[in-house]
Every structure is written in structure tokens, then in C-alpha cells.
Design a protein that fits this description.
The protein folds into two domains: 3-31 and 196-245, no CATH class; 34-190, no CATH class. Strands 3-6-7-12-1-2-4-5-8-9-10-11 form a twelve-stranded antiparallel sheet, with no helix packed on it. The chain has three helices and twelve strands, in the order αββββββββββββαα. With 256 residues, it is α+β, with helices and mostly antiparallel strands.
């Protein structure tokens, strides 16, 4: 192996050490936040203004509180509304959540005399489009309403003076399969299925937990000494250090 190749291997070892540390810190910093994806209910979203079927999406980010939550527990989110007459996708505001319950996987609007939630998008500065969805889970008077409007005014949008472009109104809310009313506690949003990176992340942290504590000092010395111009390590030495810091994920040469 050439000197330049060995130097690259040494840099890889050092980079792996840094990567595990950075990922661990990032995971700890964001561990308390939970992001829920707003659920779309096409069966309830037939547009009574522009025709077709509307679509809503977005996110609700909480501070990780489980159980009853208020607007103080919602720290951010987005809201998107798509229709045949136009669309908008902007940061969201959340108004007057009553009866909202957070679990590890869902945000639920429990039935109750005042159970409600309003999600309102910011106004798009180019189109002046703005959208909202209203959830009222109580009987009589349950409502699931969404609309897109062209509003020259500041949020929240005001339907009597805004120009309504599209909207749906599933009131009273049916309890048939596929409807938001199919469950007594309405599912407003859910935690998305983990992606490949999320599934691998605990493994990466485990690598750091197993391999890092016992080898970080030696690894830093091993890498930095050569990068400063010290004696070139052999390929087996490089692979052994890689095996050590990876907790065995990188195999050292047989017999070494």
C-alpha cells in the first residue's frame, strides 16, 4: 500500500471517530422532539367549491410531552393544502387545541364537549394564498373543514373577507372506514415510519459505544502521528484500528 493510501486510511479512522461523536450529540439534542405527519383523509375531502378532491399534509412538532397537550407543547410545524385551484405550503400556526392527546405514535383528538383544533398556514408572500383545517370532535356539531383562500390580510385568515378558492366540508363527519370519524378519537397526525438512516442510527451509536471508549485515545494518536509525518503504519495495523473503532464491523486481516 502506498504512503498516500495509508494516509487516506488514517484520515478515515479519524473521521469515523468524529462522525460517531457528532451523531451522538445530535441525537441527544433532538431526542425530546417528536414530529408527527398530518394525516390526509381523501374520503372526507371532496371539494365543494372547485370540484375534485383536496389534499392536506404537513407536520406537527411537539416538545415530546405524552398525554394531554396544549399549544404550549407544540413548538413548530408546517401545513400544505392542494386543490385543483391552487396550493400552498407554509409554516403553520396551531390554535386552541382542546382534547388533544399525544402518544408515542399518534396525535389524537378525543371526543368531548369542546374538543377542537385549528391549523392555519402562513400566507404565501407571492400568491397571497393561505389555508386552514378545522377539527371539531363533538356531538352534535362535529366538523372537519378545510379551505384554501386568497387573503391580502395577515393571518389568521378570515373567510368572510378572504376569497375562497377551494375547500371541503365533511360535516357531520361520517364514521365509515377511511373517514377521520372512523375512530372515536380522531387521528390527526402520526409519527412516520423510520427511514433507513433512522433504523441504522442506533447501530451507529452502538458502534460508538462499543468501540469508541476503549480506542479513541489510541486511534487519535495512531492517526495524528502519521498525519504529522511519523512512520507509516502497515496495512494490517490500519485494518486492526478500523476493526477496533468500528466495534468489529470492519474486519481485521485474518491472523493479524
Amino acid at each position: 500500500m502506498s504512503a498516500s493510501s495509508l494516509r487516506r486510511w488514517a484520515r478515515i479512522v479519524a473521521d469515523l471517530t468524529c462522525l460517531v461523536l457528532v451523531l451522538a450529540v445530535a441525537a441527544e439534542a433532538r431526542a425530546s422532539e417528536v414530529t408527527y405527519n398530518i394525516v390526509d383523509y381523501p374520503v372526507n375531502e371532496a371539494d365543494t367549491i372547485s370540484g375534485g378532491t383536496d389534499t392536506i399534509s404537513g407536520t406537527i412538532v411537539t416538545n415530546g410531552t405524552i398525554g394531554h397537550i396544549t399549544d404550549a407543547n407544540i413548538i413548530g410545524g408546517t401545513f400544505s393544502f392542494t386543490s385543483s385551484r391552487g396550493s400552498v405550503s407554509e409554516p403553520a400556526s396551531f390554535y386552541s387545541p382542546v382534547g388533544l392527546e399525544a402518544t408515542a405514535t399518534d396525535l389524537l383528538l378525543d371526543p368531548g364537549t369542546q374538543s377542537s383544533l385549528i391549523i392555519d398556514s402562513a400566507r404565501n408572500g407571492t400568491t397571497n394564498y393561505q389555508a386552514a383545517v378545522i377539527y371539531d370532535n363533538y356531538t352534535p356539531g362535529d366538523k372537519y373543514i378545510g379551505y384554501l383562500a386568497s387573503s391580502p390580510l395577515t393571518p389568521p385568515i378570515n373567510p368572510p373577507i378572504a376569497v375562497l378558492l377551494a375547500g371541503f366540508d365533511a360535516s357531520p363527519v361520517p364514521t365509515t372506514p377511511g373517514s377521520i370519524g372512523a375512530n372515536s378519537s380522531w387521528v390527526i397526525a402520526t409519527v412516520p415510519e423510520p427511514g433507513t438512516f433512522v433504523l441504522l442510527f442506533p447501530v451507529m451509536l452502538a458502534i460508538g459505544a462499543v468501540g469508541l471508549p476503549g480506542h479513541i485515545a489510541h486511534t487519535k494518536h495512531f492517526a495524528s502521528a502519521y498525519l504529522r509525518g511519523g512512520a507509516a503504519p502497515t496495512k494490517p495495523q490500519v485494518m486492526q484500528r478500523m476493526a477496533a473503532i468500528s466495534g468489529g464491523c470492519v474486519k481485521s486481516p485474518a491472523g493479524q
